[in-house]
Amino acid sequence: MNQPAIVKPCREKVLQQDNVYCVFDQEKISDFSPDMLSEKYWLKQNAVSGSAQGRGTTWFISHQEQQWVLRHYYRGGLIGKFNKDSYWFSGQKNTRAAREFSLLLTLEQLGLPAPHPVAYRVKRQGLFYRADLLSTRIKDAEDLVAILSRESLDKSLWADIGATIRRFHDHGIYHHDLNAHNILLDRQHKVSLIDFDRGEQRAVKQSWQQANMERLLRSFRKEQNKIPGFHWQEDNWHMLQQGYRQKN
Q1: Which of 68, 144, 228, 230 is 20 to 30 A from 132, comparing alpha carbons?
Q2: pLDDT at 160 over 70
Q3: Per-residue confidence at 5, pLDDT binned at 50, 70, 90?
Q4: Radius of gyration over alpha carbons of the chain, in Å?
């Protein structure tokens, strides 16, 4: 059974206009408009500071001295070839955006190093919906794939990565896509995890943690085979595991 969610603070506000349903954090975005969940809005404001390509485009936003990340939910796999971003609607709380927003809020309350939720938008179209999420950006950080493509990491950093993942697991936080792209290091070598789509809080005593770690190991091996001169070896994994096994 999943662990009960932590009680949320009252700073969340709901805004509904026809078929558009939004939730936003009043402390982070007091001048909220549903259009803020569209890249077109920010492009008109000249507030786009960059972008990244993945399944879709991730937009980096600068707004009132805050740095945010805007992401549209896209489908992957075979179904994504003919249905790129439409999902079956079974209630607002069950949408991908609502679930990730709620989990990010839990991570923030637990003090875990991850993005904080800012806002989300769900647009219903009959029995289906499309969704977008706005979250804070980890300042001055790069993912492990980018870093390891040019340099190696110290032993202590590998241990820190393992210890950080253990912190999430000790709180029952399951990351659905734990891979090298979703682990960031900032300039002070602080470790953070990103992209909690389809993640959830689970019972700690269940046996999902090992599968989570095995997924990460497959990710490192995949990048090693794909990128020439990728600075990762199996010994690095043992260092990461040592950090994971140590209690903070």
Answers
A1: 144
A2: yes
A3: very low
A4: 18
* Distance of alpha carbon 64 from alpha carbon 155, whole angstroms: 38
Strand partners, 186: 141
Q: Are 106 and 117 in contact (CB under 8 A)?
A: no
State what percent of residues in the chain have pLDDT above 90: 88
* Token pair recorded at residue 17: 């206009």
Classified as helix, coil or strand, 81 is helix
Alpha carbon distance 247, 203 (integer Å): 18
Short-list 103, 87, 71, CA closest to 198? 103
The DSSP element (H or E) to which 170 belongs, if any, is helix 155-170
Q: Which residues share a beta bridge with 87? A: 129
Q: Are strands 57-63 and 48-53 parallel, antiparallel or unpaired?
A: antiparallel
Supply the residues annotated as catalytic.
Answer: 177
